[in-house]
Amino acid sequence: MKSSDETHPSSTMTIGTVAERFGLATHVLRHWEAMGLLVPDRDGNGHRRYGQDDLFRVAAILRAKEAGLGLEDIHAMITADGPLKRRKVLKEQRTALEQVMAAAQAQLELVQCALDCDHDDFTTCPHFRQMTADTIGVHVPRHIPVHTA
């Protein structure tokens, strides 16, 4: 860790220091600033200076991206006018994330079903076929002819 004042919590940091700290390229921070996601202060020479609030904002953006949100969605959450609009945007994002999670859970259950199957070819397994059919709303008769190799 550097011994300079830039690592002290109350000091400000350059764009390069912030980028390095988060494993980002400096152009990413510039892009986020152009989108209005970040608004770092400027020093007397016009150089960006990032404070603690900026660091929390960068971390929040990264967490939101990890959760699958796009920059436009993150921008809508961060820049919403007032708490009521922000809550509305956040609720919409929660609903979208819940849908993604439900789809991922269904896919995980299908993969687990295939892993648990004793058939040589799990695609011929009646249980696997029923799980697959359930995802597309198709009824599979109870007695499916199973072809074994």
TrEMBL record:
GO molecular function: DNA binding; DNA-binding transcription factor activity
Record keywords: DNA-binding, Repressor, Transcription, Transcription regulation
Protein name from the UniProt record: MerR family transcriptional regulator
Domain (HTH merR-type): residue spans on this chain: 12-80
Organism encoding this protein: Streptomyces chattanoogensis
Keyword Transcription regulation tagged: yes
PANTHER family assigned: MERR-FAMILY TRANSCRIPTIONAL REGULATOR, REDOX-CYCLING DRUG-SENSING TRANSCRIPTIONAL ACTIVATOR SOXR
A Pfam family that the UniProt record links to this protein: MerR_1
Keyword flag Repressor: yes
Record InterPro entries: DNA-bd_dom_put_sf, MerR-type_HTH_dom, MerR_fam
